[in-house]
Amino acid sequence: MGNDLCPNCNFNLDGGDVFDKLSCLAQYKNKTEEEITGIAELYGWSKGKPIRFSKKLVQYDLFDPGNLFFQCPRCGCYID
Ligand SMILES: [Zn+2]
Q: Which structural domain, as residue segments, surrounds residue 41?
């Protein structure tokens, strides 16, 4: 990824690698790599299958819980 741009306004929707982002947080400064890995895994991240945060807004469908809508936080357009 890293190429996750809004098709309407070109806003960068990529929020960065989950582990990298957590490692940069001040409140995790004194945590070990193993501890941060454990927290990252709560988001579904793993060393073999790293995932990234997204800045997309998520809207749930009132009538269909399996149906999600994604929106750009800058221009509000719907994505996909
Ligand atoms: Zn946009």
A: 14-79
Residue 5 Cα to ligand 1 midpoint, Å, equals: 8
Q: For Cα atoms 21, 54, 49, give the angle at the middle one, nearest 5 degrees.
A: 70
Residue at 54 is within a domain: yes
Total count of domains within the chain: 1
Q: What is the pLDDT along the chain (80 residues), one digit of tens a residue?
A: 447 999 999 999 999 999 999 999 999 999 999 999 999 999 999 999 999 999 999 999 999 999 999 999 999 999 97
66 CA → ligand 1 middle, Å: 24
Rounded distance, CA 44 to CA 46, Å?
7
Measured in Å, residue 68 CA sits from the centre of ligand 1 at 17
Write down the pTM of the prediction.
0.79
